[in-house]
Amino acid sequence: MTLTLHHIKNTRSLRPLWLMEELGIEYTLVNEGETILNLDKQAFRQKNPVGKMPAFFDGDQGIFESVAIIEYIANKYGGEHLVRKPGDDEYGAYLQYLHFGEAGMGGYMSLVLGHTFLLPEKHRNEKVAAWALGEMNNAISYLDEEIKGKDYFLGSFSLVDISIAYMLFLMKISRNSGEFGPNIKTYFDRIKKREAWIKATSLPL
Ligand SMILES: N[C@@H](CCC(=O)N[C@@H](CS)C(=O)NCC(=O)O)C(=O)O
After folding, report:
1. Looking at residue 178, what is its pLDDT?
2. In this structure, what DSSP letter does residue 107 have?
3. Does residue 205 carry a pLDDT above 60?
4. What is the dihedral of CA 64, 53, 7, 57, to 10 degrees?
5. Rounded to whole angstroms, how far apart are CA atoms 127 and 186?
6. What CATH number should be reported for the domain whose range is 91-197?
7. Mean of pLDDT values over 139-158
8. CA 144 to CA 70: how far, in whole Å?
9. Does 3-82 carry CATH code 3.40.50.800?
């Protein structure tokens, strides 16, 4: 197998990178630069047809949605303990949380980032930024209730945590403080102690 991940620090390529570190599988990491701001989106369309991070290849098979990539890797390369199947009691919760991490939060997070620092200043809209930030805080307060009394969203560590914790990370590194309730704060502190997380967030060295 030849797994190749195109990566830029702090972007959604962190999800598959973190998973591959959790699984201890071999992969090639291609560093596409220091920051997403410098990515040549036009040239990168050769790897990801919409010119965004990440891009992942298993031989000739390319995938470029970060949550799809982690499902692909886990199901194919020894991460069965991190997924749930239709016969499992937690299957519904698994799908709900897994997709909430990107579909339920990713769009709002991108608007927060875009309208606070990614876009040129003259294109930023404060009202859009405030609205999107409110939606992120709404999502995070839902998660704060859901994680109460649990170490991980499904009890044990799973792909759900890779999907959701990445959004919490984006919230933390953005220039907006985000309102983390006590449960989600404890949860995120727990995530940050995982060896694979520490390694993945430090790459490329
Ligand atoms: N839903 C996609 C979102 C991809 C995405 O928005 N990637 C960001 C980096 S985290 C990006 O490339 N942004 C640059 C841009 O949109 O111009 C995924 O989860 O892979």
Report:
1. 67
2. H
3. no
4. 20
5. 31
6. 1.20.1050.10
7. 98
8. 24
9. no
Q: Report whether residue 52 contacts ligand 1, using a CB cutoff of 6 Å.
A: yes
More confident residue, 163 or 203: 163
Pick the residue whose CA is nearest to atom 3 on ligand 1: 65
Task: State if pTM tops 0.70.
Answer: yes
Q: How far is the CA of 11 from the centre of ligand 1 (A)?
A: 7
Ligand 1, atom 10: closest residue by C-alpha: 11
Give the pLDDT band of residue 179 (cuts 50, 70, 90).
confident
Q: Give the span between the Cα atoms of 35 and 168, in whole angstroms.
A: 19
**Region 44-48 average pLDDT:** 97
- 205: burial class by Cβ within 10 Å (0-12, 13-18, 19+)? exposed
Domain borders along the chain are 3-82, 91-197
Q: Measured in angstroms, how far is the CA atom of residue 87 from the centroid of ligand 1?
A: 32
Q: Confirm or reject: Cβ of 53 under 6 Å from ligand 1.
A: yes
